[in-house]
Structure of Diguanylate cyclase (GGDEF)-like protein:
Amino acid sequence: AKSAGQGQFAHYTTAIATETRDRTRLLQDLRMAFSHGLLFPHYQPQFDLKSGKVVGFEALLRWRTEEGQFIPPDRFIPVAEQSGLIVAMGAQVLNNALAALKTIHQAGFPGLRMAVNVSVMQMRQPNFVAMVQSALEASGVAPQELELEVTESVAALGMEVMVERLQTLRSTGIAIAIDDFGTGFSSLSYLDQLPADRVKIDRAFVNALDSGTGGRIADMIVPLGHKIGLKVLAEGVETEAQANILLELGCDEVQGYLYGRPMPLDALLDWLAKQPS
Ligand code: C2E
Ligand code: CA
Ligand code: CA
Ligand code: CA
């Protein structure tokens, strides 16, 4: 029994060593890719559900390898967060997304907004508010055309500081969206306390609408969001059935493969030109 136990232990430490090595390697590759400009966002359109019109976009970061493959953000965002690299990366995403929006406006599509994901690591930087404001100024985009997506996990950093930072940004006209609502260890009070304009229903709840597994969470989030004065956007909409239920529920906006996938800017401009006006 003893030798079996030792064997297991050896196996366990090897697994940890391998994982650590993989992480170290991944971080090295990520830093390299970042410095070589291989990280840039794609843009997924968002729509008004009733009219079907495009209202804006969400910037979603992509890592394009030298071989032309795309590594999804779920693979590298956690490493970027742990290492602190997310701070520089997030600032670059913001700059890229604002420049892209300017290009979109100038291409004949004014008034559309851009949503950018913000990690808690970024938000805890003392210069976060100043960073966002100077990025906006440099881009020439109006504050009303920028939305920042934050998750409820910001509350873990100290609700007061976060509320104050979001409030400052919001007072300049920037919109705030609460992302992935209901998926974390959240409290309803966060939804009430965080200064916001929009709440995003997570894909898992949207999927449940027509998968026979309930779908009652989305039923609740729509009226709840409206009650506290938020617009409600459902993400990950993939079927007409989901869209129809969301329309009945009074959901305001949608985003998902049914309407449009995340695209690089050039493809997005082509796509926009083909949209009915
Ligand atoms: P998220 O913010 O919840 O973004 C929505 C995710 O759902 C995106 O995955 C998007 O491509 C995907 N999606 C959209 N519509 C559909 C659909 O109809 N079906 C399915 N199956 N998926 C859909 P993506 O691009 O892989 O991003 C994953 C996560 O990585 C994001 O989740 C976000 O948390 C994080 N992320 C992406 N870009 C950034 C960034 O610039 N900064 C930070 N901090 N996080 C980012
Ligand atoms: Ca998001
Ligand atoms: Ca989300
Ligand atoms: Ca998510």
Notes: Residues 179-180, 200, 202, 235 surround calcium ion (ligand 3) (CB under 6 Å). The chain has a mean pLDDT of 92.
